[in-house]
Amino acid sequence: MFVKSAKFYDALYHFKDYKKASERLTEIISNFNPGAVSILDTACGTGKHIEILKSRYECEGLDINKELLDIACQRCPGIVFHESDMTEFNLRKEFDVVTCLFSSIAYVKTYENLVKAVATMADHLKENGLLIIEPWFSKETYFVNTITANHYDEKDMKIAWMYNSIMKDEMSVLDIHYLAGTPEGVIHFNELHELGLFDDAQYRKAMTDAGLEVHYDKEGLFGRGMYIGINNL
User: CA 17 to CA 38: how far, in whole Å?
Assistant: First the structure.
């Protein structure tokens, strides 16, 4: 995912207020672990959360997508980034906080992989450390059989992208078609995004099975909620 669209990623998500989200995340961390110093941001993408958080915390990032990590490295020089799958990484160190934001957890696709990812992240927590996960939709809340169109319009870059939202094999499936134009020319491409549809009970069970005490913030960063697991059991 995001291999073809990586160089357009920040433009595609220009509407995200990373500063506001990072401030809210810092508030959540301060409420549950005020002494937190270090953060591992899994599925960190182009590093825009880390760009803000690094002034307060010792940050590292992890993502499976090399193209996104290349951008993150340019954005945040001196920060350590790891190219790895969130379900099976081993960094041989622990952090005060491990995050998985912007619903990236859903890219594990299956509940089996959700359990593996949560356990792997929990294994990288210090005592009283926090695992913070921003969920995707559940089967009950997912917007099925709709058409979505978005636009980005700046002087030297114009992008239009459109997709249908369908459900298949317990997953949301988005076949996204992009039309991107720069002064060098116009290109068309598509990417298939498959995201697992997990419910509240599944997130909670994955966390408790990993030995975490589970809390839930209804609003989260962007209205999708937030699961907070504490490594104190």
Answer: 22
Length of the chain: 233
pTM score above 0.90: yes
What is the token pair recorded at 136?
């995707």
DSSP code for 6: G
Place of tokens 């960094």: 91
Whole-number pLDDT of residue 74:
98
Catalogue the E-assigned strands of the chain: 38-42, 58-63, 80-83, 95-100, 125-133, 146-154, 157-168, 171-182, 185-196, 213-217, 226-230
Domains of the chain: 6-138+198-230 (3.40.50.150), 146-196 (2.20.130.10)
Q: What is the 3-state secondary structure (H, E, C) of 152-172?
A: EEECCEEEEEEEEEEEECCEE
List beta partners, residue 130: 97, 230
Enumerate the β-bridge partners of residue 133.
100, 227
Does the pLDDT at position 222 exceed 90? Answer: no
Distance CA 5, CA 10 (A): 10
Burial 21-40 (b: 16+ CB within 10 A, else e): bbebbbebbeebbeebebbb
